[in-house]
Design brief:
single chain, Aminopeptidase
């Protein structure tokens, strides 16, 4: 896949903390926090790909490797975001390609991503890169109300 004109997409590492912190405000859901960004970049099982237009971060995709005692490692795509000013230019597809290529390079053969049923742009993106929709029920758990397990 060719890069959109002027856009560079790559997986970043710990040396790129300042670049990550400079992300456009519409790329992530909330402002990037320095301590969390540093920890994320240092974790060997977390990946983040950034799209830059010159020195401006205009897109990101994140994911993580995980495994079970009975299964080969898998890769979960956690989030993808492209600045409003740069949407509909193929940057999301490129971010996904770079992120998934990096996961495959580590030997992972299965990956997955979830989105809301009414998020048609995300669904179109995942279908365009070969994703297959499956029926699944998703539950959110509020752990702030979870009983303290250390007392048992």
């Amino acid at each position: 896949m060719t890069q959109p004109a002027g856009i560079l997409v790559r997986v970043i590492g710990e040396a790129d903390l300042d670049l990550l912190l400079s992300a456009d405000t519409s790329v992530f859901d909330e402002p990037v926090k320095a301590d969390l960004a540093k920890a994320y970049l240092a974790h060997p099982d977390y990946l983040i790909a950034l799209a830059t237009d010159g020195d401006k971060v205009v897109g990101m995709a994140t994911g993580l490797f995980y495994f079970h005692p009975d299964k080969h490692p898998e890769f979960y795509v956690n989030e993808i975001g492209v600045a409003e000013s740069h949407q509909r230019r193929g940057i999301g597809k490129r971010l996904m390609a770079v992120l998934l290529d990096a996961a495959a390079a580590r030997g992972v053969t299965y990956g997955w991503v979830a989105t809301e049923t009414d998020n048609l742009p995300a669904r179109a993106l995942y279908e365009a890169i070969g994703g297959k929709s499956v029926d699944m029920v998703y539950f959110e758990l509020d752990l702030s109300k979870h009983p303290d397990q250390t007392d048992t």
